[in-house]
Write a structure and sequence with these properties.
This protein is mainly alpha-helical. The chain is built from 4 helices and 2 strands, in the order αααββα. It has helices at about 1-10, 35-45, 60-65, 90-105, and strands at about 75, 85.
Length: about 110
């Protein structure tokens, strides 16, 4: 009876039925790089804030093969929504962090930019 009922009921606002497999994937490995934190703090003047969150990222595909990926972003809001926004000053800082981090990580004599 439960299986029969499950096939008749839709989750409100979706085409999904209870028990449907919506999306599954491996997790990304969380292994912070101290150099990235050092560079980010130097650019922003604040210590890095580390957090884990729900959602999806292509980093999970790289992580499966132990290829490092940076999961960071400028200040943003309402992602994928009608009022999506990005803070332009933080976008410049984000660029500066990447340029300095990549330059130092690769041992370049000076940062690009």
């Amino acid at each position: 009876m439960v299986a029969l009922t499950r096939d008749l009921v839709l989750i409100p606002g979706t085409e999904q039925r209870p028990g449907d497999r919506i999306l599954a994937g491996n997790s990304a490995r969380f292994d912070p790089d101290p150099l990235y934190a050092e560079v980010a703090e130097g650019v922003t003047g604040r210590p890095m804030e580390w957090e884990r969150s729900d959602g999806a990222s292509d980093a999970r595909f790289f992580s499966e093969y132990r290829i490092p990926a940076i999961m960071s972003r400028p200040l943003v809001g309402d992602l994928h929504g009608e009022a999506e926004w990005i803070d332009i000053a933080s976008m410049q800082q984000f660029y500066d962090i990447y340029i300095q981090y990549i330059g130092r990580k690769l041992g370049l004599p000076m940062a690009l930019g």
